Amino acid sequence: MKYFFLSLLALALLVVGVFGFRGDKFSQAPIEVFPDMDHQDKVLAQSASGFFEDGMGSRRPVLGTVPKSADSGVMPLEFGAGRSGYYFDGKFEGTFGNGMPTELKLEKNADAVGLLARGKDMFGVHCAICHGKAGDGKGVVGHHLGKVGVAVSNIHSFPQETHPDGYIYQVISDGKGLMGGYKHNLPVRDRWAIVAYVRALQASAK
């Protein structure tokens, strides 16, 4: 029994000798059993780095990438946060309008073709899963929702005369019914590109 107490005393002395008493101050760095990510292979902002030839840790953003936030207002501008006018809310003096905004600068046929191509890509990424590639409401999600009696809208039933371009833009932005809004996912230009592509799908179905 005495060997047990002697062992326990030796263990306690060993722990105190290595780790010290609570509140003790040491001149050397403590032993880290669990570092908890205190030391990471990263460069802090404005810090030097020997990894790069110029010795600077801060690097310029990669060309073509979108900043997470910007003091210049790039993000609010691109996503339309807090802005009004036809380009940003689809309305002329409170009423939904028709036509593509002048901000899109569709001055040549190539500009319109490019916008439609972008609209097709974005429609395929964000819309086709529910509305179907043809916009007839027969997408994968639409198929499964139909089994429980929930219908996905057929976009061909939203003609320009009764559902203006600005209205379609607003639905894309804020959602409607079971459809969530995409104003945080899609920049303003991409939303208008989808509107243009929706009109192209409707025209092709006639």
Global Rg: 30 Å
Determine the N-to-C terminus distance: 96 Å
Largest sheet: spatial strand order: 1-2
Helix content percent band: 40-55%
Beta-strand content bin: under 5%
How many strand units? 4
On the 0-100 scale, what is the average pLDDT? 86
What name does CATH use for the topology of the domain at 108-205? Cytochrome Bc1 Complex, Chain D, domain 2
Output the structural class: mainly alpha
Low-confidence stretches are none
In CATH terms, the superfamily of the domain at 108-205 is Cytochrome c-like domain
Oligomer: single chain
Report the biggest beta sheet as strand number plus sense, adding barrel if it closes. Answer: 2 strands, antiparallel
Count of discrete alpha- or pi-helical segments spanning 4 or more residues = 8
Tell me which CATH architecture of the domain at 108-205 applies here: Orthogonal Bundle
CATH C-level label of the domain at 108-205 = Mainly Alpha
Task: Note the run of SSEs as H and E.
Answer: HHHEEHHHHEEH
In one word, what is the shape? elongated
Structure overview:
The protein is built from eight helices and four strands; from the N terminus they run αααββααααββα. The chain is mainly alpha-helical and 206 residues long. The protein has a domain at 108-205: Cytochrome c-like domain (Cytochrome Bc1 Complex, Chain D, domain 2, Orthogonal Bundle). A two-stranded antiparallel ribbon has the order 1-2. A two-stranded antiparallel ribbon has the order 3-4. α7 (165-174) crosses α8 (188-205). The longest helix is centred in the N-terminal third of the chain and has 18 residues, at 2-19.
